[in-house]
Amino acid sequence: EAGVTQFPSHSVIEKGQTVTLRCDPISGHDNLYWYRRVMGKEIKFLLHFVKESKQDESGMPNNRFLAERTGGTYSTLKVQPAELEDSGVYFCASSQLTGVVSPLHFGNGTRLTVT
Amino acid sequence: GQNIDQPTEMTATEGAIVQINCTYQTSGFNGLFWYQQHAGEAPTFLSYNVLDGLEEKGRFSSFLSRSKGYSYLLLKELQMKDSASYLCAVRDQKSGYALNFGKGTSLLVTP
């Protein structure tokens, strides 16, 4: 089966610009997660979708970040306007089941650099 | 939240055994995961523990002691390709299904 795919793999933008990251989960996976790793820090949770609904968005840093998952398939994460501290690697992950142990399958991430 | 601690770096020799420790503090513990991540690639799932004891999966084993807030990942018969970052992640009831990660342990396997 195809894994979790993320696009783009790299993005370099200037402070104040807008960037949209895309994630295509494994087909049939209802659960979709966004995580972020800032340099030197641990991977941190941003939010969790179950199908098209936001289950938990407690990790979203502020209202410059907007995640959507229309139709319950792929998801986008928009950063507008981008700030320097938004630089990092943004990972998407998906899993099949919610109520039982179901490992997260991660994508390769999008490396975002804000200059 | 959790404090998840793991060593920053470890070095081991090809063919040897290495143990990577992880300690955590949490309320409402609901599972501990180990992931492997090669540079520039996705973290990949290795193991899961929710009950005390040892889970063995080929060359990799993971141990959990909930009372001590402690886990380790044991890698046997090390191969060069095992050089990677190993991430300990904890889930608790407060965070729902979100995983909370440690900073990872960078393992270098030398000839």
What do you see in this structure?
The complex is a heterodimer of chains A (115) and B (111). Helices cover 0% and strands 49% of the residues of chain A. Chain A is globular and about 40 Å long. Chain A has 115 residues and is mainly beta. Chain A contains no helices and 11 strands. The mean pLDDT of chain A is 93. In chain A, a hairpin with a 2-residue loop joins strand 5 and strand 6 (53-56). With 111 residues, chain B is mainly beta. Chain B contains no helices and 11 strands. In chain B, the strands form 2 sheets. In chain B, strands 2, 4, 5, 9, 10 and 11 form a 6-stranded mixed beta sheet that branches. Chain B has a 5-stranded antiparallel beta sheet with strand order 1-3-8-7-6, with no helix packed on it. In chain B, a hairpin with a 6-residue loop joins strand 4 (29-37) and strand 5 (44-49). The N and C termini of chain B lie far apart (40 Å). Chains A and B meet through strand 4, strand 5 and strand 10 of A and strand 4, strand 5 and strand 10 of B.
